[in-house]
Amino acid sequence: MEKTEKRPGYFARLKKKRLLKQSQSEKADAEQNQSDLESKTPVICEPAPIGRSQERNVERARGSDDDSKPCNQTKKEKSKPPGTVEFTVGPRDTLNSIALKFNITPNELVHLNRLFSHSVVPGQKLFVPDVDQSERGSSEHLTA
User: Fold this and answer.
1) What percent of the chain has pLDDT over 70?
2) CA distances from 131 to 69, 135, 136 (A)
3) Are the beta carbons of 87 and 125 closer than 8 angstroms?
4) What SS3 class is residue 97?
């Protein structure tokens, strides 16, 4: 019986491959850096003159127009859906209790306010259906 050469294990082969790839990538990086250093020459550029229309575009991009919103306002404000009013959540309010007050399902409240969960916190602003408008709408249906 001849002794066969034992093949290295899976992890040993994996380690060997990783080391080989790492050494090849290091060589390629070194060659790339060397060619970059040889090809780099200092370039000095002067900014092109700006015309009056381009100045206005630059000011708009910076947000320095008087009629624009402040730059520090990074969070986009929610737009009020039609037929709704703003409601501030009280200390003992839950999504279910608010839904009961306005005769709407909690899921409809979540959808209307684009919430990510059914949890609300005191002081949070929610959009709820306008009770006055819905009463007016129902009375119009009765008279028509």
Assistant:
1) 59
2) 32, 6, 9
3) yes
4) helix
pLDDT in tens, 108-122: 999 999 999 989 999
Region of 101 (left: φ > 0; alpha: ψ -120 to 50; beta: rest) is: alpha
d(C-alpha 55, C-alpha 51), whole Å: 6
Residue 8 DSSP label = P
φ, ψ (nearest 5 deg) of residue 94 = -125, 170
3-state secondary structure of 12: helix
DSSP state string for 27-85: HHHHHHHHHHHHH-------PPPPPHHHHHHHHHHHT--TTSPPTT--SPPPPPPTTEE
State both tokens at 10.
Answer: 């899976």
- Express each pLDDT in 4-53 by its tens digit: 778 889 999 989 999 998 898 888 888 877 776 666 555 565 555 555 55
